[in-house]
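thought: fold this chain, then report.
action: predict
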Amino acid sequence: MRFDVMPVATEKQMTEIEETARYVWHNYYKDIFSPEQIEYMLHQYQSKEAIKAQSGKGYIYYMLMSDGALAGYTCVKLEKDYAYVSRLYIKPEYRRQGLARRTIAHFNAIFSSKEHGLDYIKSLKLKVERNNNFAINVYEHLGFQKIKSVDTNIGGGFVCREYVMERKVT
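observation:
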């Protein structure tokens, strides 16, 4: 399997990410969030307009390609000494094929190399719902550790109860 991480640069690609988000979130989060919260979060965070706005605030979206097909997407934001992995979603039919591992390895290679000028990034951090056992297990397998719990009011009457997880760049 050929795996590529491709930056999202065009409106068409943003639309593809929006459609992928809708597909993945309704498939995956149906047992974690209410349909109303899923729709709220998709509109607030994963609509084409939201993606465009986030891109203007330092978030960098990438398409995860498997043999030329869109298999998922990720998003990072560079902070003072860490990269915040804001999104990492894989379509159901591409799960359990090592794409999350390859994505994290891709980031690790970029942030550990002086060649890219990003070697000031010392760790990757992300948030994951505390009752999302599948994702927690995946992240722990990839070397992430829980460092704290946070409850975030995201508006619309919804709260996300998450672990912040961290993995050192090696």
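thought: worth noting. The beta strands are 3-7, 59-66, 69-78, 82-90, 123-129, 145-155, 158-168.
final: tokens above.
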